[in-house]
Design brief:
This protein is mostly helical and about 220 residues long. The protein contains ten helices and two strands; from the N terminus they run αββααααααααα. Helix 2 crosses helix 5, helix 8 packs across helix 9 and helix 9 packs antiparallel against helix 10.
Length: about 220
Amino acid sequence: MTEREQDGVSTDQYDIDEVRRRGARMPRSERRTQLLGAALEVFVAQGYHSAAMDDIAERAGVSKPVLYQHFPGKLELYLALLEQSCDAMIGNVREALASTTDNKERVARTVHAFYDYVAAESGAYRLVFESDLTNEPLVREQVDRVTNECSEAIAEVIAADTKLPEPAALLLASSLVGMAEVSSRFWLDSQRRMDKDAAADFVGGLAWRGIAGYPKTDEH
């Protein structure tokens, strides 16, 4: 009987880190989180093409076999991390929209969600907005998902408030997403010459002045 069987633990619930030969064990879910965190640091610093699984394993403090137990290759690891990063951005926008019923404030908080995301120390936005692997269909699909799902969530609010038809509401929503994304990245690339919140307020004000002009009627 193996040690894991003696402990009453299934063989796929824990990883034994071969680097740490003191017998330390970590639940698979925690190990996966640890590996994704290390991978994020490496991919953000080096990009997909320059990053190596050796680098990620070393950053995580595990052996390559442990890394491959969770992710069969670099692309699979990158996709898992990208999906997580995209989910976070989409979740931030949905949270901003749900946080108030005041539409002016909704616009402001949505723009702030993009600025907060690109300003985060993790640098995860680089995977979503500046990936060096967008020619890979599965990567492109995840990146496009951010624009599409954020736009759809915003379009629902616009349509409900303005009574615009769905295609028009979606067009306005995608314009807001594009404005927030491009301006936040420009703000970051320009070395944050404006305060983050002030910059987001400035752009949010511009967006609201445009969207607020659409009445709650089909006639305009």
